[in-house]
Design brief:
This protein is of the alpha/beta class and 373 residues long. The protein has 17 helices and eight strands. This is DNA polymerase III subunit delta.
Protein backbone atom coordinates (compact mmCIF):
# COMPACT_ATOMS: atom_id res chain seq x y z
CA UNK A 1 0.00 0.00 0.00
CA UNK A 2 1.00 3.61 -0.46
CA UNK A 3 1.50 5.66 2.70
CA UNK A 4 2.01 9.39 3.23
CA UNK A 5 4.88 10.52 5.41
CA UNK A 6 2.54 12.31 7.84
CA UNK A 7 0.69 9.02 8.39
CA UNK A 8 3.80 7.01 9.30
CA UNK A 9 3.58 7.50 13.07
CA UNK A 10 -0.04 6.34 13.20
CA UNK A 11 0.80 3.35 11.01
CA UNK A 12 3.76 2.28 13.19
CA UNK A 13 1.64 2.60 16.32
CA UNK A 14 -0.66 -0.10 14.94
CA UNK A 15 2.17 -2.50 14.11
CA UNK A 16 4.89 -3.16 11.56
CA UNK A 17 4.47 -4.38 8.02
CA UNK A 18 6.94 -6.97 6.73
CA UNK A 19 8.29 -4.78 3.93
CA UNK A 20 8.90 -1.04 3.51
CA UNK A 21 9.95 0.89 0.41
CA UNK A 22 11.10 4.45 1.19
CA UNK A 23 11.70 6.56 -1.92
CA UNK A 24 12.39 10.23 -2.62
CA UNK A 25 15.22 12.76 -2.88
CA UNK A 26 14.58 14.69 0.36
CA UNK A 27 17.39 13.00 2.26
CA UNK A 28 16.63 14.44 5.71
CA UNK A 29 13.00 13.30 5.66
CA UNK A 30 13.90 9.90 4.19
CA UNK A 31 16.56 9.40 6.86
CA UNK A 32 14.13 10.36 9.64
CA UNK A 33 11.47 7.99 8.26
CA UNK A 34 13.97 5.12 8.12
CA UNK A 35 15.12 5.91 11.66
CA UNK A 36 11.53 5.69 12.92
CA UNK A 37 11.02 2.33 11.19
CA UNK A 38 14.34 1.02 12.62
CA UNK A 39 13.46 2.15 16.15
CA UNK A 40 10.04 0.49 15.98
CA UNK A 41 11.64 -2.66 14.56
CA UNK A 42 14.18 -2.83 17.40
CA UNK A 43 11.41 -2.43 19.96
CA UNK A 44 9.56 -5.31 18.27
CA UNK A 45 12.58 -7.62 18.54
CA UNK A 46 14.26 -7.14 15.17
CA UNK A 47 17.70 -6.83 16.71
CA UNK A 48 19.84 -8.45 13.99
CA UNK A 49 20.54 -6.03 11.11
CA UNK A 50 22.04 -6.59 7.64
CA UNK A 51 22.69 -3.81 5.13
CA UNK A 52 23.13 -4.27 1.37
CA UNK A 53 23.99 -1.57 -1.17
CA UNK A 54 23.38 -2.27 -4.86
CA UNK A 55 26.44 -1.47 -6.95
CA UNK A 56 27.80 -2.82 -10.24
CA UNK A 57 28.12 -6.61 -9.95
CA UNK A 58 25.88 -6.83 -6.86
CA UNK A 59 25.09 -10.42 -5.86
CA UNK A 60 21.30 -10.52 -5.60
CA UNK A 61 21.39 -14.11 -4.30
CA UNK A 62 23.06 -12.85 -1.10
CA UNK A 63 20.07 -10.58 -0.46
CA UNK A 64 17.57 -13.38 -1.06
CA UNK A 65 19.60 -15.68 1.20
CA UNK A 66 19.61 -13.13 4.03
CA UNK A 67 15.88 -12.52 3.70
CA UNK A 68 15.10 -16.23 3.94
CA UNK A 69 17.54 -17.31 6.66
CA UNK A 70 17.16 -17.26 10.42
CA UNK A 71 19.70 -15.56 12.68
CA UNK A 72 22.15 -17.91 14.41
CA UNK A 73 20.89 -16.61 17.74
CA UNK A 74 17.20 -16.76 16.86
CA UNK A 75 16.82 -12.97 16.66
CA UNK A 76 14.42 -11.43 14.22
CA UNK A 77 16.21 -9.67 11.37
CA UNK A 78 16.05 -6.24 9.79
CA UNK A 79 17.36 -6.41 6.22
CA UNK A 80 18.09 -3.07 4.56
CA UNK A 81 18.60 -2.77 0.82
CA UNK A 82 19.83 0.52 -0.66
CA UNK A 83 19.50 1.11 -4.41
CA UNK A 84 21.10 4.57 -4.99
CA UNK A 85 20.49 4.52 -8.76
CA UNK A 86 16.84 3.49 -8.49
CA UNK A 87 17.53 0.99 -11.32
CA UNK A 88 17.84 -2.64 -10.17
CA UNK A 89 18.23 -4.06 -13.69
CA UNK A 90 16.59 -7.22 -14.96
CA UNK A 91 18.21 -9.58 -12.46
CA UNK A 92 17.44 -7.18 -9.64
CA UNK A 93 13.84 -6.73 -10.77
CA UNK A 94 13.33 -10.52 -10.69
CA UNK A 95 14.97 -10.71 -7.26
CA UNK A 96 12.76 -7.93 -5.88
CA UNK A 97 9.64 -9.70 -7.17
CA UNK A 98 10.81 -12.88 -5.44
CA UNK A 99 11.49 -10.89 -2.28
CA UNK A 100 7.97 -9.43 -2.35
CA UNK A 101 6.46 -12.89 -2.78
CA UNK A 102 8.31 -14.36 0.21
CA UNK A 103 7.57 -12.02 3.12
CA UNK A 104 8.77 -13.65 6.35
CA UNK A 105 7.35 -12.79 9.78
CA UNK A 106 10.85 -13.01 11.30
CA UNK A 107 12.44 -10.73 8.69
CA UNK A 108 11.59 -7.07 8.15
CA UNK A 109 12.89 -5.67 4.85
CA UNK A 110 13.43 -1.95 4.21
CA UNK A 111 14.35 -0.79 0.71
CA UNK A 112 15.49 2.79 0.07
CA UNK A 113 15.39 4.41 -3.37
CA UNK A 114 15.78 7.91 -4.82
CA UNK A 115 12.89 9.76 -6.45
CA UNK A 116 11.23 7.52 -9.05
CA UNK A 117 9.59 8.62 -12.27
CA UNK A 118 6.04 7.58 -13.13
CA UNK A 119 7.16 4.74 -15.40
CA UNK A 120 9.33 3.17 -12.68
CA UNK A 121 6.49 3.40 -10.16
CA UNK A 122 4.36 1.37 -12.60
CA UNK A 123 7.06 -1.26 -13.19
CA UNK A 124 6.43 -4.86 -12.21
CA UNK A 125 9.06 -4.96 -9.46
CA UNK A 126 7.93 -1.74 -7.77
CA UNK A 127 4.24 -2.71 -7.99
CA UNK A 128 5.03 -6.09 -6.42
CA UNK A 129 6.89 -4.43 -3.53
CA UNK A 130 4.13 -1.86 -2.92
CA UNK A 131 1.44 -4.55 -2.91
CA UNK A 132 3.40 -6.80 -0.54
CA UNK A 133 4.26 -4.06 1.95
CA UNK A 134 4.24 -0.29 2.42
CA UNK A 135 5.55 2.23 -0.12
CA UNK A 136 6.43 5.51 1.57
CA UNK A 137 6.92 8.42 -0.85
CA UNK A 138 9.05 11.27 0.50
CA UNK A 139 7.84 14.46 -1.15
CA UNK A 140 10.02 17.58 -1.04
CA UNK A 141 8.98 20.51 1.14
CA UNK A 142 8.01 23.17 -1.40
CA UNK A 143 9.15 26.76 -0.92
CA UNK A 144 5.65 27.96 -0.02
CA UNK A 145 5.37 25.28 2.69
CA UNK A 146 8.79 25.89 4.21
CA UNK A 147 7.83 28.58 6.80
CA UNK A 148 5.09 26.32 8.22
CA UNK A 149 7.50 23.37 8.24
CA UNK A 150 10.03 25.44 10.19
CA UNK A 151 7.31 26.50 12.64
CA UNK A 152 6.32 22.87 13.24
CA UNK A 153 9.94 21.87 13.86
CA UNK A 154 10.39 24.69 16.33
CA UNK A 155 7.20 23.63 18.14
CA UNK A 156 8.54 20.06 18.41
CA UNK A 157 11.49 21.37 20.46
CA UNK A 158 9.32 23.63 22.62
CA UNK A 159 9.93 26.91 20.80
CA UNK A 160 7.79 29.25 18.73
CA UNK A 161 8.18 32.55 16.93
CA UNK A 162 6.50 35.71 18.21
CA UNK A 163 2.86 36.21 17.32
CA UNK A 164 1.70 38.28 14.36
CA UNK A 165 3.80 39.99 11.75
CA UNK A 166 7.08 39.61 13.67
CA UNK A 167 6.65 35.85 13.75
CA UNK A 168 5.82 35.65 10.06
CA UNK A 169 8.95 37.69 9.30
CA UNK A 170 11.06 35.35 11.42
CA UNK A 171 9.77 32.22 9.65
CA UNK A 172 10.18 33.87 6.24
CA UNK A 173 13.73 34.90 7.17
CA UNK A 174 14.69 31.32 8.04
CA UNK A 175 13.04 30.00 4.86
CA UNK A 176 14.97 32.47 2.71
CA UNK A 177 18.30 31.59 4.31
CA UNK A 178 17.93 27.81 3.94
CA UNK A 179 16.08 27.54 0.62
CA UNK A 180 16.71 24.23 -1.12
CA UNK A 181 18.72 22.86 1.82
CA UNK A 182 16.41 21.06 4.23
CA UNK A 183 19.26 19.51 6.19
CA UNK A 184 20.64 23.00 6.82
CA UNK A 185 17.17 24.11 7.95
CA UNK A 186 17.10 21.23 10.43
CA UNK A 187 20.54 22.18 11.75
CA UNK A 188 19.62 25.85 12.12
CA UNK A 189 16.45 24.92 14.03
CA UNK A 190 18.48 22.67 16.34
CA UNK A 191 20.92 25.53 16.88
CA UNK A 192 18.05 27.80 17.97
CA UNK A 193 17.13 25.11 20.49
CA UNK A 194 20.65 25.16 21.91
CA UNK A 195 21.01 28.94 22.00
CA UNK A 196 17.65 29.90 23.49
CA UNK A 197 15.31 28.38 26.08
CA UNK A 198 11.87 27.01 25.34
CA UNK A 199 9.26 29.64 24.60
CA UNK A 200 8.94 32.54 22.19
CA UNK A 201 11.73 33.64 19.84
CA UNK A 202 12.03 37.24 18.67
CA UNK A 203 12.92 38.17 15.10
CA UNK A 204 16.24 39.60 16.36
CA UNK A 205 17.15 36.29 18.03
CA UNK A 206 16.40 34.37 14.85
CA UNK A 207 18.30 36.85 12.70
CA UNK A 208 21.37 36.71 14.95
CA UNK A 209 21.48 32.91 14.96
CA UNK A 210 20.57 31.79 11.44
CA UNK A 211 23.25 31.68 8.78
CA UNK A 212 22.84 32.08 5.05
CA UNK A 213 23.08 28.43 3.96
CA UNK A 214 20.72 28.45 0.98
CA UNK A 215 21.43 26.19 -1.96
CA UNK A 216 19.88 27.72 -5.02
CA UNK A 217 18.43 25.44 -7.67
CA UNK A 218 18.34 26.74 -11.23
CA UNK A 219 15.11 24.81 -11.83
CA UNK A 220 13.41 26.51 -8.87
CA UNK A 221 14.20 29.87 -10.46
CA UNK A 222 11.22 29.42 -12.75
CA UNK A 223 8.84 29.16 -9.78
CA UNK A 224 9.96 32.57 -8.50
CA UNK A 225 9.60 33.98 -12.02
CA UNK A 226 6.09 32.59 -12.51
CA UNK A 227 5.01 33.72 -9.03
CA UNK A 228 6.15 37.29 -9.72
CA UNK A 229 8.28 37.15 -6.57
CA UNK A 230 10.89 39.74 -7.56
CA UNK A 231 12.75 39.62 -4.24
CA UNK A 232 13.19 35.85 -4.38
CA UNK A 233 14.09 36.01 -8.06
CA UNK A 234 16.82 38.55 -7.32
CA UNK A 235 18.22 36.48 -4.43
CA UNK A 236 18.25 33.32 -6.53
CA UNK A 237 20.04 34.89 -9.49
CA UNK A 238 22.50 36.49 -7.10
CA UNK A 239 23.02 33.15 -5.36
CA UNK A 240 23.41 31.15 -8.57
CA UNK A 241 26.00 33.62 -9.79
CA UNK A 242 27.87 33.47 -6.47
CA UNK A 243 27.87 29.67 -6.56
CA UNK A 244 29.47 29.69 -10.00
CA UNK A 245 26.50 28.35 -11.92
CA UNK A 246 26.93 28.54 -15.71
CA UNK A 247 24.99 31.46 -17.20
CA UNK A 248 24.14 29.32 -20.22
CA UNK A 249 22.28 26.81 -18.00
CA UNK A 250 20.31 29.58 -16.27
CA UNK A 251 19.46 31.05 -19.67
CA UNK A 252 18.24 27.68 -20.91
CA UNK A 253 15.94 27.23 -17.89
CA UNK A 254 14.41 30.71 -18.23
CA UNK A 255 13.97 30.41 -22.01
CA UNK A 256 12.21 27.05 -21.66
CA UNK A 257 9.69 28.68 -19.33
CA UNK A 258 9.17 31.63 -21.70
CA UNK A 259 8.58 29.23 -24.61
CA UNK A 260 6.12 27.22 -22.54
CA UNK A 261 4.20 30.36 -21.61
CA UNK A 262 4.09 31.47 -25.24
CA UNK A 263 2.78 28.10 -26.45
CA UNK A 264 0.07 28.09 -23.79
CA UNK A 265 -0.78 31.76 -24.44
CA UNK A 266 -1.27 31.04 -28.14
CA UNK A 267 -3.24 27.90 -27.37
CA UNK A 268 -5.65 29.78 -25.09
CA UNK A 269 -6.06 32.46 -27.77
CA UNK A 270 -6.99 29.68 -30.22
CA UNK A 271 -9.74 28.50 -27.88
CA UNK A 272 -8.10 25.47 -26.29
CA UNK A 273 -8.80 24.75 -22.58
CA UNK A 274 -6.02 25.85 -20.23
CA UNK A 275 -6.08 22.51 -18.35
CA UNK A 276 -5.41 20.60 -21.56
CA UNK A 277 -2.60 22.97 -22.58
CA UNK A 278 -0.98 22.63 -19.15
CA UNK A 279 -0.94 18.83 -19.50
CA UNK A 280 0.35 18.95 -23.08
CA UNK A 281 3.21 21.22 -22.03
CA UNK A 282 4.11 19.01 -19.05
CA UNK A 283 3.53 21.71 -16.43
CA UNK A 284 3.28 19.96 -13.06
CA UNK A 285 3.72 20.59 -9.36
CA UNK A 286 3.91 24.17 -8.05
CA UNK A 287 4.26 25.53 -11.60
CA UNK A 288 0.76 24.29 -12.43
CA UNK A 289 -0.92 26.70 -9.99
CA UNK A 290 1.43 29.56 -10.91
CA UNK A 291 0.99 29.39 -14.67
CA UNK A 292 -2.44 31.09 -14.71
CA UNK A 293 -1.42 34.29 -12.88
CA UNK A 294 1.76 34.47 -14.97
CA UNK A 295 -0.25 34.26 -18.21
CA UNK A 296 -2.48 37.10 -17.05
CA UNK A 297 0.57 39.34 -16.47
CA UNK A 298 2.27 38.96 -19.82
CA UNK A 299 1.19 39.55 -23.40
CA UNK A 300 2.07 37.44 -26.40
CA UNK A 301 4.10 40.36 -27.77
CA UNK A 302 6.12 40.65 -24.56
CA UNK A 303 6.95 36.95 -24.67
CA UNK A 304 8.07 37.23 -28.30
CA UNK A 305 10.33 40.16 -27.39
CA UNK A 306 11.70 38.11 -24.50
CA UNK A 307 12.70 35.33 -26.90
CA UNK A 308 14.42 37.88 -29.13
CA UNK A 309 16.39 39.12 -26.09
CA UNK A 310 17.17 35.50 -25.20
CA UNK A 311 18.65 34.90 -28.66
CA UNK A 312 21.01 37.86 -28.20
CA UNK A 313 21.90 36.69 -24.68
CA UNK A 314 22.62 33.22 -26.01
CA UNK A 315 25.24 34.64 -28.36
CA UNK A 316 26.65 36.78 -25.57
CA UNK A 317 27.08 33.99 -22.98
CA UNK A 318 28.71 31.81 -25.65
CA UNK A 319 31.17 34.59 -26.47
CA UNK A 320 29.85 35.15 -30.00
CA UNK A 321 28.87 38.77 -29.41
CA UNK A 322 29.11 41.15 -26.69
CA UNK A 323 27.16 43.78 -24.89
CA UNK A 324 29.25 46.83 -25.43
CA UNK A 325 27.48 49.86 -23.93
CA UNK A 326 25.92 52.15 -26.48
CA UNK A 327 26.01 49.69 -29.38
CA UNK A 328 22.30 49.47 -29.95
CA UNK A 329 19.25 50.00 -27.82
CA UNK A 330 18.27 46.32 -28.30
CA UNK A 331 21.65 44.97 -27.24
CA UNK A 332 21.72 43.04 -23.95
CA UNK A 333 23.49 44.63 -20.95
CA UNK A 334 27.29 44.28 -20.85
CA UNK A 335 27.03 41.80 -17.93
CA UNK A 336 25.06 38.70 -19.07
CA UNK A 337 23.70 38.17 -15.53
CA UNK A 338 22.02 41.57 -15.75
CA UNK A 339 20.56 40.41 -19.05
CA UNK A 340 19.28 37.23 -17.42
CA UNK A 341 17.60 39.34 -14.74
CA UNK A 342 16.00 41.53 -17.42
CA UNK A 343 14.77 38.43 -19.26
CA UNK A 344 13.26 36.85 -16.14
CA UNK A 345 11.60 40.13 -15.20
CA UNK A 346 9.61 40.12 -18.45
CA UNK A 347 7.57 37.36 -16.80
CA UNK A 348 7.99 38.13 -13.10
CA UNK A 349 7.07 41.81 -13.26
CA UNK A 350 6.67 43.23 -16.78
CA UNK A 351 5.72 46.70 -15.52
CA UNK A 352 8.82 46.95 -13.32
CA UNK A 353 11.35 45.28 -15.61
CA UNK A 354 13.29 48.46 -16.27
CA UNK A 355 13.41 50.19 -12.83
CA UNK A 356 14.27 47.15 -10.67
CA UNK A 357 18.05 46.90 -10.09
CA UNK A 358 19.77 43.75 -11.35
CA UNK A 359 21.43 41.27 -8.98
CA UNK A 360 24.93 42.15 -7.81
CA UNK A 361 27.86 39.75 -7.50
CA UNK A 362 27.94 38.04 -4.14
CA UNK A 363 30.50 39.07 -1.59
CA UNK A 364 29.52 36.70 1.23
CA UNK A 365 30.61 33.10 1.43
CA UNK A 366 28.36 30.43 0.03
CA UNK A 367 27.75 27.17 1.84
CA UNK A 368 29.84 24.37 0.28
CA UNK A 369 28.32 21.44 -1.54
CA UNK A 370 26.26 20.92 -4.63
CA UNK A 371 22.63 21.78 -4.75
CA UNK A 372 20.17 18.91 -4.79
CA UNK A 373 19.35 17.89 -8.34
Amino acid sequence: MQLRLDALEAHLAKGLAGLYVVYGDEHLLAQEACDRIRATARAAGFTDRSVFTVERGFDWSSLLGASQSMSLFGDRQLVELRIPSGKPGKEGADALKALAAAVNDDVLTMITLPRLDAATQKSGWFTALAEAGVALKIDPVERAQLPNWVGQRLAAQGQRVAAGEEGRRALAFIAERVEGNLLAAHQEIQKLGLLYPAGSLSFEQVQDAVLNVARYDVFKLNEAMLAGDVGRLTRMLDGLRGEGEAAVLVLWAVVEEVRTLLRIKRGVAAGKPLAMLVRENRVWGPRERLIGPALSRVTEGALEKALALAARLDRQVKGLSGGTPGNHRNDPPPDPWNGLFELAMTVASPAKAAPVPPPRPRTSAVAPGRRPG
